Amino acid sequence: MAGDYYEILGVSRNASKDEIKSAYRKMARKYHPDVNQDPGAEERFKEISRAYEVLSDPETKARYDRFGEAGVGGAGSGGVGFDPTDMGGFADIFETFFGGGFGGGTSTQTRRRGPTRGDDLRLDLRLKFREAVFGGEKEIKIPHLETCSSCNGSGAKKGSSAKTCGTCGGTGQVRRATRTPFGSFAQVSTCPTCNGEGQIIEEKCDSCGGQGRKQVNKKLKITIPAGVDNGTRLRVSSEGDAGTRGGPAGDLYVYLTVESDSHFRREGINILSEISISYLQAILGCKIKVPTIDGDFEVQIPAGLQPNTVLTLEDKGVPKLGNSVSRGDHLLTVKVDIPTKISGEERDLLEKLAQIKGEHTSKKGFEGFLESIFHK
């Protein structure tokens, strides 16, 4: 055993028995392997349990104070130390983790199952592209368990009540003692008659069949925040299944999927789209209206624009999730259409232009001229 037992529990050498017990409970709950999966947690829990085993017994503690580990070498292996009938803190921890208990220290009320929180539910919801961008209200329909209004969740028929289970005497547990050469051991398990409830319902509620809950289809209006995307998860508090024995309801988790749009694409909070203009518009420049998520927007095309130029329309993108005032940009890729056929008049004009620019078109023809314009 490495380290001083007092240091392991974080108490002084003058700590009282109650202070030692309180420190042990706190640390054991923190490091128990069933709740702490960190590497080394199990070994730490063993150290804590060993320290409490020694310091919780006055005689063992006195020997440890005088001789150290050498004075308590027998503790933990059948010698002095842990008394299974005086395991207040240790029993509480088993109660918390495993739902079981030990004799003597826990009451019937503690061992019986208490209120249980209802299950969380999941709903997958598809949104249109613009719904995801701007958000809004959405009506959904969910099947979930609600507390039975006829019996108020008791499961008993109106005018009757549950009775104490005769098998376990209301504890919700049955105990079986086994004697071995090393001593007596008690095994505690859930009562098979009442399934750990501690009570038996003889006259069941006609509405819920004794379950205390009923399956109900419920309509809800939920708020979709602006800027959600594929995989966004929304939590709707207390709209999961109702709890049992007065326990709180679980939550509803809505997972969002966004449909694609025929015109727009999305990258984070930016929106991407493409437009095509004629070669003359690209050469001379122009003003055109382009579709954005907010509607048509007039864009200035500068003269001499090259194919596949990306123009940035600021603040025309997706609102930032959680801060709808801040928006991304709209990135507009401009394509240039080069015609494959032209009229005779168009050819004459273009050939005149080619002569002015000193371009030779007799071999390359019209396509060669346009190529020379866009790739100089």
UniProtKB/TrEMBL annotation:
Positions that bind Zn(2+) 2: C165, C168, C191, C194
Protein name: Chaperone protein DnaJ
PANTHER family on file: CHAPERONE PROTEIN DNAJ A6, CHLOROPLASTIC, DNAJ HOMOLOG 1, MITOCHONDRIAL-RELATED
Subunit structure: Homodimer.
List of residues binding Zn(2+) 1: C148, C151, C205, C208
Cellular component aspect of the GO annotation: cytoplasm
Pfam family, one: DnaJ
GO MF, one example: zinc ion binding
Keywords: Chaperone, Cytoplasm, DNA replication, Metal-binding, Repeat, Stress response, Zinc, Zinc-finger
SMART domains with a match to the protein in the record: DnaJ
Role: Participates actively in the response to hyperosmotic and heat shock by preventing the aggregation of stress-denatured proteins and by disaggregating proteins, also in an autonomous, DnaK-independent fashion. Unfolded proteins bind initially to DnaJ; upon interaction with the DnaJ-bound protein, DnaK hydrolyzes its bound ATP, resulting in the formation of a stable complex. GrpE releases ADP from DnaK; ATP binding to DnaK triggers the release of the substrate protein, thus completing the reaction cycle.
Encoding gene per record: dnaJ
Family: Belongs to the DnaJ family.
